[in-house]
Amino acid sequence: MKKLIALFSLVLTLGLVGCSSKSEVKDIPVSDIKSAINNETLLPIQPIFDIDAKEFYVFENVKDDIKEGFVLQAMINVKLQDVFVVKTDNVEKVKKAIEEYKTNNLRSFSDGYGGEENATAVADSILESVGDYVYFIATNNAKDIESKILEMIK
């Protein structure tokens, strides 16, 4: 009977350890991520449009789900340079809003408006989530910016 209880306890302990794996995502302010991107001069097109995500029209229907976030874009309207980072309670809802933006608003860039670089930036854009962070990057160096974001939050 003691062996059975010991075995049962071991199974329960292993089950708890397996189900309680701690998230590997750091809880840092998105303003730190923005500073890191700007300080690394990862955004070659200057000046940039910098706005709080809650104030950006794309997030109008999901702004109550946003804890914090930012949107960086090139102020030159013929060059695509979009970087959005949002911390949210509803990852899927925010991703859907960004997907709609990409489909509807970046269509002219994907068709080559402003040059082949813009079409490539849309085609190679990154929309991902890690923990409660959602990020969208549509630039020619999207992988470099994604690496910096992941370095900050993981």
SSE blueprint and pairings:
Layout: H1 2-19, H2 30-39, E1 48-52, E2 66-74, E3 82-88, H3 91-105, H4 107-110, H5 116-123, E4 126-130, E5 133-138, H6 142-153
Antiparallel strand pairs: 1-2, 2-3, 3-5, 4-5
Helix pairs in contact: 2-6
Task: List the main descriptive attributes of the protein structure presented here.
154 residues; alpha+beta; five-stranded antiparallel β-sheet; 5 strands; globular; Lipoprotein
Describe this structure in words.
The chain has 154 residues and is of the alpha+beta class. The chain has six helices and five strands. It has one domain (24-153). It has helices at residues 2-19, 30-39, 91-105, 107-110, 116-123, 142-153, and strands at residues 48-52, 66-74, 82-88, 126-130, 133-138. It has a five-stranded antiparallel sheet, sandwiched between helices. α2 (30-39) packs across α6. The radius of gyration is 20 Å and the shape is globular. The model has no long low-confidence stretch (mean pLDDT 88).
